[in-house]
Batch of 3 targets.
Target 1
Amino acid sequence: MPRITPFRPAAACTLALSLALVFAAGASAKGFKVELRVVGSGGRVLAEKPVATATTSVKTSPKATCFGAGTGGSGKPVTIKGNTAMGLLASASQSVAALSPLLISDHFDFGIALCGIGSEVAKGKASWYLKVDHKSPSVGGDSAVIHPGDEVLWDLAPSYPYPGELVLSAPDTARAGVPFTVRVFSYDEKGRSKPAAGVKVAGASGPTGADGRATVTLSKPAQLVARKAGEIPSAREPVCIGGKCPK
């Protein structure tokens, strides 16, 4: 039930509102960090790191014709808002070499169309698949609003239906030579998860079982990744050993 706010003098309310707007504007100008992961064909990871949001200008390309002949861009620059999934990608492309150039088109009325990221270009039935916090948004990347702490994934999917996204759960720390359990889930387009069987995890004695679990033994710190053919590989999960963590 909403709380009823006591009456305050108009001047005080005006001052409070003004301060709130100033702080909001400052936060917007500075941007915020979001975890970005970009996966190309064959599960090749182009980027996996926190990226600061920033409104960015990107030049469209007549060569961005992955949606059919005549669908390329005008060649003019477009401004993409920083608080969107596409804006995050555009911002990252300014500093991460593997993400540049972006091959985009302004041909469509619905918004910006993405054909290529770096050397990875959608061809044939392939297309760039977007997920925010393991769920595919119902809008395009330049309209998908993101928030601090979100996880944004761009994956070059070979065709539709889109592949599942593997998510690995592992302990932060372990003891050298002592087995521990990890678990892998597969998330579908709607963000629904289920245990993923038959998944390979580095250091595991075998693939995951029907419950998505596997036993891992490490002798040194490691970045664990879950992989399975036809699925999007998981993000790296660092496991520290003896007080030392992987770089």
Target 2
Amino acid sequence: MGTEDTADWQGVVVVEDDGSLREVLTSVLTHEGHETRSVGDAESLLAHVPPADPSLIILDVNLPGIDGLECCRRLREQGHTGSILMLTARHEVGDRVSGLDAGADDYLVKPFALDELLARVRSALRRRPADADDRPVPTDVLELADLVVETGTRRVRRAGREIELTKLEFDLLALLVGNTPNVLTREVLHDRVWGHDGSYMSNSLEVAVSNLRRKLGGDDLGPLIHTVRGVGYVARAG
């Protein structure tokens, strides 16, 4: 990313210090039709995001200087709501949870097949806001107790307070609230939100639900997302 970056640029940014892998990923993504840029360290990324707001950041965990976890946290603190896919050589569940806790939407362990990476990329980009091309879109309003979810503008408010969510968190919340009072299974949630197979064993859903509960202020205002043990989750007041 360079000085030509503008606030309205959207595409895929690869952040990987391994030059050979960075070149391969950039080439493959470009060949698949994605506008792709790449950098070798977190500092270069943080200097441009925001104001440039990529649709997807593919972020290696083990970066020199600022590592991927800290970079992810800083991006979310700066207000970046685009999808973040983390790459790592660490296989432990705790490492994956750390990445999701930092604000990542998905997690891919090295070595990985390029076909799997591309499937994750397609899934992440499907979660872009409906108005990403700046056309006017109708806004459906979902309401649950004091929670208001606007699906067109992707705004969320609770008790009058604006709540900032990542794309994945918004999609998960809208799916749950839009189906209340029905219980949605873990498999259905993973298929509808993540859009790829096999990841529902990685604790990504539990971490996303935990983050949603925290942002919605469940302790102060009362919980809205409930666990149905052995089945999945349901959105309901009280």
Target 3
Amino acid sequence: MRFSPLGSTLLSLLIVVIGSVSGTLAQDSEDRFSIHGQLKNETAYRFVDPTAFTKILNIARLEARYFPTSSFSVTAVLRTYYDAAYDVQKIDRIAPRKSSRTILSQNLTAEQIAALRIDNLREVEIRQKETELKEIYADWSFRRLDLRFGKQIVRWGVVEGARVTDEINPLDFQEFILREIQDRYIPLWMLKADMYYFDPYAIEILWIPELKGHQPASKGSEWEQFQLLENLKEPSQNLPNSEWAIKVSKPVGSWNVSGSYFYTWDDFPSSFRTVFGLGEFGVSPEVAFRPRYERLHIFGGTFTGPLGQVVLSGEAAYVAGKYFGTLFGRFNPVTGVVDGGNTLQLNLGELQRDYAKYALSADFRLFKTDFSLQIQQQYIFAYQPEIIQDRFDTILGAFARQEGLYGRLTAELLLIYFINDKEIMIRPKGTYQLTDAFKIAVGADIFEGTIGGPLPGEFHFAGFFKNNDRVYLELIYSF
């Protein structure tokens, strides 16, 4: 179980607070404690050559809650997992290099593998097992104020799956965006205050002293799309570098609207780079990277409400201070002096631009089926051609869900179409509730598109994984 120095300090503080509150109680607490959890097996089989069981993941999740008083509670969520796929298959079959000349160890004998020393030659990072305290927080309730302090997940936004205003917690890309919310979002230590002093306005304030960015998938794994560069400069964990957020919401008739501001760090570090030695005969240019996290200002707003038989939801955000990656060699060279001689130097990598993003969804029921249609778009202001991303980037989504057999059988279909790159992600799923505690699900994850171009950073979001199409089986027991 791992904690950062800041996390250990905040956990110690939380334990002291819990102890002081609990220590004042003389009442029997037998009925003040609740516990529930889930045991789950996720088995996935990639049906694109080389075929393989890519995960046989066994997960145990335990959530305990203690109520010392009616206005105070403590919640802890423990998660542990073990992936048995690595016990039954070689790593280069689970996460192969996608090339026609790839040598797979399952085609060789044990003696050949030992002689060639090719078992995990690429040094693929393996995350086979882990136990972690996912969340731990304390709740205080007052007449017009609710406080939550601890390691937690806070979700903003009203359009499901759209990261427009829902930017509070970073993401774990270990399995792309295919994991459930509770495993995809990375909990952070923070203080959340919900205030109701100015009825009908509700005010939510966040103070986030723990700084974390997006976590990439394991190095060399089948879901690796980006990695953090070496010598990454991370901001110090101190009060001036804390993240702050505020959201004000208000009901307007049957609608609910909100406005928000988030002073944060970009969860993707900017990869500044400098090229030395250009134009020198017989000398190969050298590239120096200076990656670092940058501050962002995010101004957002949301609305949701009924329009006849349709529920409309929308959100928008203006992001100031974002650095966008650029294509190589588009800037004018700057003459410099290196080791007493003249050379050419290019300062490349990023352009700072503001951008806007927005999403709209429509939810309705038709033919006994629940439908959700949505559109997301991003627009970069003061656009220049060397920016890798397009000026406009548009995504369409459609979701359908139908129940049968008196609610025991559920069929779902999710389609996400990336217009700019003409790629699509298709996720059909069927779930059958065998008992109140046990259910079984089968589904597939299918990607269509192109992997990407040859330029640095020019990869496609879904098409990048076109060779990872898979089917899966889930067994879930809840208690």
